[in-house]
Amino acid sequence: MAGIDHEVRSTRLARMMDGVLVAQLIHVVAELGIADLLRDQPMPVAQLARRTGTDPDALYRALRALAGEGVFTESGPRTFGLTPLAEPLRTDAPDSVRNIARMRGGREHWLAWAELQHSIRTGSSAFRHAHGTDLWTYLASHPDQAAVFDRAMGDDAQHIHAAAASVLDLSDVSRLVDVGGGHGYLVARLLRRYPELSAVVLDQPHTMQGAERVLAEAGVRDRCELVAGDFLDSVPTGGDAYVLSRILHDWDDQACLRVLGNIRHAMAAAGQVIVVDSVVPEGDTQHSAKLVDIIMLALNEGRERSEAELATLLEAARLRHTATLDTSSHISVIISDVQPGNIPTCTREVEHTGSGQ
Ligand SMILES: C[S@@+](CC[C@H](N)C(=O)[O-])C[C@H]1O[C@@H](n2cnc3c(N)ncnc32)[C@H](O)[C@@H]1O
User: Fold this and answer.
1) Are 196 and 345 contained in the same domain?
2) What is the extent of the structural domain holding 193?
């Protein structure tokens, strides 16, 4: 980048700024379900507009702009079809990101992005600044947005959970507790893989119905207990492994210590804590975690952490970091266990200041 000429660098920066438009156009077509309508064949924009209740000319301009980015193709005059890059916008694509696009560009998120400067100036949540409440409380009282959020987590989960499960060895675990387990996608996958394993999914009350469905569809409901609760207060006891998949990154250090302390307090005498999260690399390397880190800051006052930061956090909760396992995805699996002779931490004394995604 050092020798880059002025015209090139300003053009490159302008292209980066265009990213905001591309992201929002992807959100709009995901909301409209355009890729689903194009699943079998290209369609004239007039017909697409009728099916989606949109303005034909405006829709044409949106699809033309996205086709210029490689998403959709104008395969005939004012007729659009899918490209390989548009396929994951289909609801039923195996690598679907439709709900992630719906969530990311949703109005409640967008209002938070508008307040990003507040987060950078203060280190506190742009979401709270925009909405007057934290994301979780907001979702609990906005069922439509909560449904999109949970589906987005499900879409994302396919890839992330498969990658995490492939490096995990739970052959010695008999009772697994998934703390903030959402709709139970990871537990469903692990219970299918380990027929002797039983599990508990702890999450907020509004996610329980979805978890019921996912676990029943996976045929493992009989080996899984569902617990509606608040992991900042307590977690189910007696697990010999506790999973935190995409949880710690939602919270500031103090709140993480509170959750880890609750786990430490609840777990059997010997056991492990399995964290599934991104690990931020050192230096200028491009890594999705560096941008997701900004999402976490803006939404929740959370953060993505380096391996050293995660190890420090675990040690502060009197857990011993034993391994960091890379996976085929952008997330890693960070394993820790109980340090022999340590008395369980009572974290209720730690004042919680953060809120979380
Ligand atoms: C980013 S999602 C991750 C879900 C799941 N672990 C996964 O990997 O797909 C965070 C989850 O934490 C849950 N959550 C947030 N605050 C919570 C709390 N105080 N107690 C229990 N669950 C909570 C949310 O409902 C959500 O399901």
Assistant:
1) yes
2) 155-349
Residue 356 inside a domain? The answer is no
- Closest residue (by CA) to atom 4 of ligand 1? 182
pLDDT in tens, 228-248: 999 999 999 999 999 999 999
Which residues surround ligand 1 with Cβ inside 6 Å? 136, 153, 157, 180-182, 185-186, 202-204, 207, 230-232, 245-247, 250, 356-357
pTM of the model: 0.86
The active-site residue out of 109, 249, 287, 352 is 249
| pLDDT tens per residue across span 123-175 | 999 999 999 999 999 999 999 999 999 899 888 788 899 999 999 999 999 99
SS3 at position 304:
coil
* Domain harbouring 304, CATH code: 3.40.50.150
Buried b (16+ CB within 10 A) or exposed e, 135-158: bbebbeebeebbebbbbbbbbbbe
Catalytic: 249? yes
